[in-house]
Amino acid sequence: MTPEFHRIRRLPPYVFEQVNRIKARLRSEGVDIIDFGMGNPDMPTPKHIVDKLIETARDPKSGRYSASKGIPGLRRAMAAYYGRRFGVKLDPDTEVIATMGSKEGFANLAQALTAPGDVIICPNPAYPIHAYGFIMAGGVIRHVPALSPEEYLAGVSRAVRNSAPPPSVLIVSYPSNPTAQWVDLEFYKDAVALAKKHDMLVLSDIAYSEIYFDDNPPPSILQVDGAKDIAVEVNSLSKTYAMAGWRVGMVVGNARMCSALARVKSYLDYGAFTPIQVAATAALNGPQDCIEEIRATYKARRDTLVTAMARAGWDIPAPPASMFAWAPLPEQYKEAGSMLFSKLLIEEAGVAVSPGVAFGEHGEGYVRIGLVENEHRIRQAARNVKKFLDQSGQILSKVRDQIPVE
Question: Which helix (H) or strand (E) holds 256?
């Protein structure tokens, strides 16, 4: 028998796929699914951004190869955004790389920075690319529980003491996907000091930095004095401007790490389609009131979700940031675990969520709910959930043999 390819052997089955298969089957049968599973913005990209794409695409030269690390105008716009938003000065030529989404930037950073066997400290639960980008690059992941920022930072110190070889990279991600928590600048000061003490590089993912719900916007790690000595930040236009499918992100900060990423990318791609990069430049340089409108939409959905689900009997903490709610399993279904709960919820109630265990073992006991349906649909989902909770005894009796035994 032909053995499994080496890198594929290191990747577990995609946990989300189990719920996705049920979702696809039910939809093929005509069932209306209220889908909170994927963080896929449903709002239209602002008109001025789309108009710039169309205008640029009409240029006969627009179909040529673009620039792997981003056209100069886009990199300047990204640097200007960091200056406005965070007060961080960046050199667009050496400290800014435009990427095809934050996911690509993260994965190729892992390729650029990792030697086989390098130890990487990663939060758990976490967005899957944070661990698996490095695993595919040959790294070894040291998972640290991260159900709160304080727990994570304390765990990092323990992990450093007990790792051989010593860790080379520390990953931080706030606002967090999936837990929706965010941190203040003091957290980043502590993280930078810890990383410098133990000779680690830092990768900070702030793809949700513009989706927050109080008066204090999440900071950047690059606001910390000396952070650029060891850190880069991965950011994205996907959620900020409802441009997820456009695939525009950035890696900014430490010039040496940016240079390594640029070199890897030069072998792998020619950059995004030039009109997309020009339109992304227009997004960053143009009117920013669209960000406030998008943020307000997510806030209204968050408030509706929390209120409606509470009436249904499911208490969900209000997320302070991001486009997700991180919800503990309802009491009736705690013994079922997040995967079985997610399957039952879609089959019995027509509501799709992401099982917490898909984000790591420490995500067990939770599900992630994306704020990607309108308020009417959220209320409809809550009505379905109420029936689902009321009938929990009957539903669980049918799957008793699937409930894990402690």
Answer: helix 255-268
